[in-house]
What we know:
This protein is mainly alpha-helical. About 65% of the residues lie in helices and about 0% in strands. Strand 1 and strand 2 form a beta hairpin.
Amino acid sequence: MLDRSEPLTAPASAVRLRVSRIGAVLRSSPSRLAILVFVALILVFTTLFTTPWAAADGRPTHFADALFTAASVVCVTGLSTVDMATHWSVFGKVVIVVGTQIGAVGVLTFASILGLVVTRRLGLRAKLMAAGDSNPLRTHAGAVPEGQAVRLGEVGTLLATVAVSTVTIEVVVGVLLLPSVLVAGFPFWTAVGYAFYYAAMAFTNTGFSPNAAGLGPFTDDYWFLSLLMLAVVAGSIGFPVIRTVAKQFRTPRRWSLHVKLTLVTSAVLLVSGAAVYTALEAANPRTLGDAGPGHTAFQALFLSTMTRSGGFATIDVEQMHGASLLVTDMLMFIGGGSASTAGGIKVTTLAVLFLAAVAEARGRRSMEAFGRRIPSDVLRVAVAVVLWGATIVAVATIVLLQITGDSLDRVLFEVISAFATCGLSSGISGELPEAGKYVLAATMFLGRVGTVTIAAALAASQSRQLFRRPEERPIVG
Length: 477
C-alpha cells in the first residue's frame, strides 16, 4: 500500500509540475481558458450526440454530423446537417437545449455562476474572468483605460442578472407562446415542449425549430412571431444592457455609453433592414410579395430581426433576390450586442468605426458620442476585430468553394451565417461533404470565440514602450 507520507517520485513530481504550469497559464489568460472550455464542451456534446439514445431511430449519429451539431449548439448558431426536428430523440433535444443555454451566456460566465451557487462567493480571479467574458476589453491584469460597462464590484450582480433574466425571459415567453402552439393543433404536452423550446431558441439566438414544418404553422400568427422577435432582441442586446435598463429604466441619462450605442445602433439597423427588405422583396411573389402591404412590412421587420442572429425564417431564403442576400450578409456579419447571445462583429464595433469616420470627416482628433470621448485604443481593437472577422470569412469561403463547387453567393451566405452564429441557411448545409462540415464547424467556433479572444488578447497585450521611432506618413486612399 502506498505511504502518502513518502515524498513524490521524480515522474510524479514532473507531472504535478507540468499540470501546475498549465493551470497557471490558463488562469492568467481567460481567453485561452475560454477556447479550451469551448473545445471541451464541443467534444462532450459530440460524444452525447453520437450515442444511440440521442437519435430518434436509436442508431449512432455519424461523427461529422454529431460534431457539426455540437458546434452549432454550443456556439448557438442554428445551422444543421440533419433534420433537427426529426433526427433527434427527446434526450437529444434536451441535450440541445442544455447546450444552447451554456453557449449563450458564455462559458466563463456560466462557470462563474456555478461557482457562485456552490461557494456562495466569488474570488477576485473569478470576478476578473467573468468581467473579461462580459467585456473583451478588460485585461487579465486589471483595469483598462476607460470606464467599463461591468466593474469588478458589479460582477456578482451581473451574474445574477444573467441567470435570472435568462430563466425569467424564457419562461415568460414560453408561457405566452403556448396558446398559439395549441391553436396550431399540437397535443397539449407536445405544445408545452414546443413552446418552451421555441422560447429557449429565440432568447439564445439559436433558431432551431422542434417541429418538422418549422415556422410554417405560425406564418400568419403575429402574436407568435412578435414574441419570437422580442425574445431575440432581448438576447441580442446583451446582459449588461438588460441589467442597466432594468435598474435605471426611468433615468436614461445615467446609462453608460456602451448601453446607448448598443440600443441606438441596434434600433437603426433593425428599422433600416426592414425598410430595405420591403423595398427589395415587396415585388417578389416567392418571398414577401404574396400578401398585402401590412403583412409585407411585418415580415420584413421579422426578417430584419432574425438576420441579426435570430436564425428563424418564415420565407425561403433561397428565393430572395441577390441584392437581398447581400444585405442579409451585411446584417449577419454585424450581428448583435457585446456580451449577448448574438454573434457577429457586434453593433458597438460598427458604431465605433462609424464615429471614427465622422470624426475624420469633421477634422477632429477624437471620437465623441453622447457627450463622451472614446479613446483610440478602442478603435484599434474594433479595426482588428473587423479585419480578423473578414479574414476568417474569406478563408472559409475560399476553402468551401473549392470543396463544394457551389455558387459564390450561396457559399458566402452560409459562411457568414456560420461565422456570425446566425443560423439562416442558403440550403447547402444539408448537402455538404464531410470535409465541408468540418470547415463550417470550425467557422462557427472561430466566429463565437475568435474575435472576442482577439479583442481580449489585444487589450491584454499592451506594453509600455520607452521610445518612439521617427514618424513617416504613408499614402492612404
